[in-house]
Specification:
Blueprint (H helix, E strand, L loop, with lengths): L4 E5 L6 H12 L2 E4 H15 L6 H7 L5 E6 L2 E6 L2 E2 L7 H10 L3 H14 L5 E5 L2 H5 L5 E6 L2 H14 L6 H17 L12 E4 L5 H14 L4
Length: 224
Amino acid sequence: MNNIRIAIDGPSGAGKSTLAQAAAAALGYIYVDTGAIYRTIGLHIWKSGVDPADTEAVIAELPGLRIELHYEDGQQRMLLNGQDVTEEIRLPEVSQYTSAVSAIPAVRTFLLEMQRELARTQSVIMDGRDIGTVVLPDAEVKIFLTASTQARAERRMLELARRGTPQDYENVLKEIEERDWRDTHRDAAPLQQAADAILLDTTALDFQESLDVLLKIVQERGRT
């Protein structure tokens, strides 16, 4: 059977990672969280004290980075220069750095081949913001996953609370709105729905309902 590539794009807080991971488990595919890869670079820039707005300084850091993906019990783990940073990359402080560095074309080029290689030898579900438009433009199934900004802010609040880093609703909502603007207005691979992607709005759906619809989309395309 040929390898199948499923591309899931969408804005911050839409639930791409949790849904894609659950779908991958149900289908027996490898899940690739590309956001975690960019967060790994954002973490490095943050910890290095480099100004994320200083494009040349950020680019100068890239040759010294060794970014690896490992899987333990089906869970994606991120390694930065040999160190597991899977939990660290989720710190709230890393989000702004990630958004800034991911807008730099050289950073996206640096990671592009790495992402494509992951999809060459195995069936994958890959989520991000430019998977269906740039990384895997010929993916067999493309889904644009979204929800209202209010719903995404509420979900993000719950996620942060579970991780022990709670924030109030207004701050989370503002951060999501600002992230949406940056992601859709950046010059390098801006967030947009691919012309052949199916729109999945989960505003009124709970997790299981969203997963059921996602799997139905895959099944209806006859790619399982």
